[in-house]
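User: I'm writing a short methods note and want a consistent example. For thiosulfate sulfurtransferase, I'll paste the sequence; you return only the structure tokens, no commentary, since I'll be parsing the reply automatically.
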Amino acid sequence: MCPASVRNVVISASELDAVLREGGPVTVLEVGRETGDGPDPRLPYASGHIPGAHYVPFDPDLVGPRTGTSGAGPLPRASDLQERLRAWGVDDGSTVVVHTRQTPAVAARAWWILRWAGVRDVRCLDGGLAAWQAFGGPLDTAVPPPARGTAVVRPGSLPVLTAEDAGGLAVSGHLVDARAPEAYTGDPRRAGTGHIPGAHSVPGSDNFSGGELRDATELRALYASHLDGRVVGAYCGGGVSATTTVLALASLGVEAALYPGSWSAWTSDPTRPTETGSGPGGDPTAAAR
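Assistant:
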């Protein structure tokens, strides 16, 4: 595969098939966050998966211990994540391909966590497992045994925002809210709804078309008002959908910061300001404090 680059964030099914046939140093991870599939979320994986793919349960493998102020999706402990990476066979020089059977945001979260942890070359399978099957890629039922990778986790390899950072960035730069429009708008009659004052709405789902990342021209148009050279940050409800914003901007060569705690952490402190309505609104001075 080509050298790691911020622009190389996805891989097509045909490209992955070629790499696997060549026996290249690639680790494939299927990230599961399925619902409605019975008591065992691994059942879809067990029925057939990309050959050699390891199953990664979203929670707890990509989520750390929750506290009253952490938000819904805190970062995993570095020691726990390193142990898992090694069990998946990841070395410092590995290429890792992540995918899911459902929403691409789950794969984007895995992409972001691994990049944050210092894995340099991580790709999302564009279109997920559906694209692999549409291409005619084979499926396997054999579960790979735990491996002995040598990856060393280096937390902080991608930028993160604290609550204070996010509030300040809404004033000094661009803070993007990746939730659905109705969540962003909120309800003025209900406390704790709405958005961080000064944040702009760009739903994470808009980054994709048919489950695949939009092309560069479409993404530049989508983020045109935020590409003026100032710092860009993103948040959502619990630190998942916003990773699609980081992924999309990375494909354009723009490094955006993630607020992992997102809205669920922001609203854990009732003194933090909130705004309702379809516009950024708010008191920038209050948002920056």
